[in-house]
## 1
Amino acid sequence: VSHSPDRPIVLTVGKFDGVHIAHQHLLARLRRRAAEIDAQTAVMILYPNPLLVLRPDAAPLALTTLADRIALLRDQGIHHILVEPFSHELAQTSADDFIARILHHLRVVELWEGPGFALGRNRQGTLPYLSHLGEGLGFTVHAVAPFSLLGETVSTSHIRRLLGEGDVARAAWLLGRWHSLAGQVIHGAKRGRDLGYPTANLDIAADLTVPAHGIYAVRASLDGEAESLLGVASIGVRPTFDNGPRSVEVYLLDFDRDIYDRTLRVEFVARLREERKFESVDALIEQMGRDVANGRAILTEPDTLRLASPR
């Protein structure tokens, strides 16, 4: 941020990976509070995940890219979105200096965070510490209780686990939308075309969370276009053929266009089945026909496009 906004700022700081419903709950509190005191809202995203810098071997895969986080935060009506590049230097910055850097750019009057929040070297800046610091610097600190839904605490790590189990429906409920992945359409083995189901093979960034191997009913869009395409996606290693590297392939229903090198975004609506090895190519083709029929039935059911509470 190159200048100080005119109005006071209600701020929250975090990774905001997924911008899931717990994040949305915090952001709603932020918006309401800002409206009450005639302030503006600001979110500071720490990126990349501090673990990627400090303990790369322990760093989890991300739910969302930085660009997606920014877009999702904009959708939440946040006035100012700042990205703070996380580095070894930042990790060694004291809580006092970190806050001083923020206050140099933003006239923060309130800081809102979850209860386990801490910033600065050795996590020195706990909420009590920051509250004491704020007394002399003109801001107050507010803690938001952990957000749970039907007794289930909502967190990025929990959503990541659900996706790892292939439970895209429950993950969607906690995200407040379907989990999505975007990638460039690249050339594959063209095996799907030979089987009668030509697929778009996606180049997915290695640091993103991909659902468990299996077959999924999906919605898709090209290059951010408004048109919603329906499809069936296969994630896995093609055990009937080669057990090769994992691929994400999408068969788009009622679609026949050359989309190589374009960006396809895929939303995972429902898991149809696990990936498995078939005794013959004919048996696989038969099952692919059933998968497409099942996917079409799910995706054209009127209630599917409303995120229902999971059973």
Note: The mean pLDDT is 93.
## 2
Amino acid sequence: QDMPFDDFWNRFFGQPQQREREFRVPAQGTGFFLTEDGYILTNNHITEDSDKITVTTLQGESYAAKLSGADSRTDLALLKIEGKGFPYVKFGDSAGLKVGEWVLAIGNPFGLEHTVTAGIVSAKGRQLGLGGNVPEYQDFIQTDAAINRGNSGGPLVNMRAEVVGITSNILAPAGGNIGLGFAIPANMAVKVVAQLKDKGRVIR
């Protein structure tokens, strides 16, 4: 407002000058290796509209990552970095999870790298009506393991060290964790990853 040439602009063009500004904001999230040759799974809302993606491993090494494929409807994205011999996870059967079963959430809440929190499976098949980044296909695992901003895309692990979910959303009216976290089931992720790896997108 009140720029020196506003009157000039309004007089000759009859409308306020539209000043477009570009904002770039760094986003942090979590991901995990699926293969020893550098495929990584994370949330789509972490990588969407990104200019550059950098992956930092547990050992502190940084890699430029390429987006191999993404699916906004399930909020999953597949990344690829160059290299070999990466330690990778194994998926478990999310359909076999029981309410009350112990799980661990691993991630980078508020940039606190490699944080592990524990909780139980609070519910299965949970539907959310929150809008925004909530995936269209909803069959969430609900957990009370502490999940905060930065945990998105991290693994939800059972007591057999198998990934049974991918942390995606929290219900937090005040902005912090209140024990209502939600993860995308591993069984859904397995199907999506296969298509992202093969075609770069999910065909329905």
Note: The CA atoms of residues 47 and 154 lie 13 Å apart.
